[in-house]
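The following record pairs a protein chain with its ligand, zinc ion.
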Amino acid sequence: MASEKNGSNGSKSKHIVLTSHPARFGPKPIAIHWGKADPIQRGPIIGTLSNASHRNVIGTHSGSYGVYRALAVASGQLQSDHRADLTNTSPAEHIGPHPSWSDPNKIVSLDPFGALVGEVYLSLYEKGYDIRPTIAITKAHINMPELGEAIAKGRLEVDGKFMKDGGDLVVTKAAIEPVWYLPGIAQRLGVSESDLRRALFEQTGGMFPELVTRPDLHVFLPPIGGSTVYIFGDPADIADPNKSLAVRVHDECNGSDVFGSDICTCRPYLVHGIEECVRMAQSGGVGIIVYLRKEGRALGEVTKFLVYNARKRQEGGDRANAYFTRTECVAGVQDMRFQELMPDILHWLGVTRIDRLVSMSNMKYNAITQSGIEVIERVPIPEDLIPADAQVEIEAKKAAGYYTDGVVLTEVDLATVKGRTLAE
Ligand SMILES: [Zn+2]
């Protein structure tokens, strides 16, 4: 990667420094020993761009937003060596440390100390190291119109603590940026680290040469979206085996989650998950919603809309028995979410058992249970919450092995489940 070197006065020189060849650096950066329980021994994640000799990772902070930072620097609005002022930014709730934090196999796609860097690496920060949090934890009140309906129908009750007047929910929320320990990611996917590095290098158009030139650096800050955790109840109770836990792991679907599109069950299922979380908190447990930026099964929204068109224009119309085929025709695969990495967030939170998993996805269930978390009960979406045009999706998923306590249609019956055409 090329970055422009700054002079000691912060002014830019025209000299480009390549960070892809370690011989240029001089002193070695602080080492990262992934999986160490002591954050000092583990070492901080340093993705700074203003001091190449401090960098101990490949890539940079802020995920996909790093590109906007580049625009801000290019247009002269942001000093390239700006270091975050972390005054009063410390976590609003404490999470961890949990035993999973020091198990190098349990967490490979985020930095468990990501919220605590202002505390545990304070002395290094004061020495001038540009160490940034990759996790931020705050508190909020949230509300969604469907919650009012749930109260009116008697499914939820205002208790004044977890749910306030008008359906306002009191939550703790955490934003998490990805931090990938490449040997662990490779192991999770069952590939060699060198094959993983090469594919990441090539498939980003050669964006990060260090993936292939710097085998001494094992941590990668990928340019992808992060995730958000919403906690209903006391976060300290999550790891308490005597407290019950409801969890929904939800992959972003902007069209439904925000705009209420009726072609899928995403928003109704998300709201149902929140209802389950509130009831769990009100009955003495904790509820967790994990929201991951993996739009359109991580194929992206352009691919998703292309698939919608292909589904609705195909001969015979949009029907459940052709649901997955159309995606594969456009994208080459049915899914790119790699749920194997998703349980890391649950392990960061200290989850060891889920009493009510609000999901029908066999991929999510398998990933969670194979990571060592026990699942007691799976909660499908109630039939009356499924939009008419989303019957195609839900019946196709159930036939493909998604969890249901209802009927799974035969191939013949699947062909009769149809959605709207584009003209309707
Ligand atoms: Zn959706």
